Amino acid sequence: MNTIINIGRSFGSGGGFVGKAIGKKLGIPVYDNELISRVAEEEGYSKSLFAKAEEHSLFSVSSFFASGRLSYMDSGYVNDNVMFKIQSEVIRSIAAKDHAIIIGRCADYILRELPCLNVFVCAPMEFRIKRLVENENMTPDQAETLIRRKDKTRSTYYNYYTFGAWGEASNYNLCVDSSVLGIEATADYIIDFGRRAGLVTL
Fold this sequence. Notes:
Layout: E1 4-9, H1 15-26, E2 30-31, H2 33-42, H3 47-56, E3 71-72, E4 77-78, H4 80-97, E5 100-103, H5 107-110, E6 117-122, H6 125-136, H7 140-162, E7 174-177, H8 178-181, H9 183-196
Parallel strand pairs: 1-5, 1-6, 2-5, 6-7
Antiparallel strand pairs: 3-4
């Protein structure tokens, strides 16, 4: 059984860094927006097609994989629903081939029929603002505005495609506040939890 860890995260909580730390500790690949898109290209999907899809997407995010709508080939782009279908196929392909950590992209829902460890990483607003101020050269007001916008985008995207509630504890095996232990110790905690649950076999 492949070890698959799906990580949802509130913006600024460091969830992506937690995922990378877990990957380093377990020696398995971590798939974020960039790597998922690279796998899609390797499987024959056009990068330029996805780039056009981003321009027309209902979901305003930095990666075309947050789009989703289906293919109007005559218009030269794919819509959000077909994009989500392609994304889902790519994520299933990743999970079938090897151990993996997948960041965001509704992976917990897409892989809901597989034995995965589904985690949501969160943190208090004050902690998230502090991280952005220190790491991204933002003012506190700028950081809070960005956090609220990104969280809303992630929530809207997740809720639309999964018919669930982004960040709701019942959707995940584990919800953890990264501000309590920090990035590395949070990664250790998730690994230990996964092993005790029989979902991390490495």
